[in-house]
Amino acid sequence: MPVAVRSFAKINVGLEIGPRRADGFHPLRTLYQTVALHDRLRLDLARGTGIEIRCKDKRVPGDESNTCWRMAERAMKALKARGRVVIHLDKALPLQGGLGGASSNAVATLLAIERLFGKQLAPEERLRLAADVGSDLPLFLVGGTVLGVGRGEEVYPLEDLPALDCVVVTPEIGVSTPQAFADWDAKSQGAGSRGQGVGKLTAESDRLNGFSRAVFAWLSGSSTGVPAQSSGNRAEALLLDLVRAGIENDFERVVFPQHSELCAVKRALEREGAVYASLSGSGSSLYGFFKSAELAKKAATRLSAEGMRAVATKTLRRREYWKRLWE
Is 136 considered catalytic here? Predict the structure, then answer.
């Protein structure tokens, strides 16, 4: 019996990049938030052995370079499952868009394979497989509002934000995450010539800790005095607090100079009334939070009329994420 599953996107509410480690990775601090935009996957079990990926988008690889392929291989080995798995992938999320599409696809594949074979991995085994395939996969095993640290693969569920209305814009260009990190390193090395050694490392550590403090202040409502547990105007207060907290995405510092059109999209979102606008991940997608669904829809319509690929959507809380996962 085929298994159908949705593969939801994420946005990053702030992202701080630490200095490159000895293993080549960078320590990160970020707040992941799942949103309602999604791809669709259908998995079938056929005779024979192996993995097959079918997708109408020819840019999607059909070999082991595809995260779905790599996850399927690992999941079947862990489950001691045999057969030929055919993965039908209906892409709506952009490639290299900063919305975590490939990572979400891989986690959806893992969950669908469990259902397809009627077996289930332990939660810690799921997380291990996810982190093995990619840094931001584990967040999709949590959903909702998630703190990401380490390379982004260490995830901690936070109390869910209220559902927030947003507009996501997905430009045609793609941004290479490895190149964005390389540009960040080059920028940091330039700054490092003015602050070498222990002082520089301390400054980088202070930046990461500063991000954590800013996120805590935002989520606790310390600047507006609206407690996190309250309802009513909590969503609007959160948006105002987000601006006051000064939470930013470090990738904007290196991606915008390379792609000025992305900076223009951020300004367009702000012009249309976004209380807060940001690059998601390393891009190229951007998003803006709006005070109401009506304002978000109007903004998306106007931006679309200007030739942008803009869509109004909502953030997805954890319970709804898991409820809507299955077709």
Answer: yes
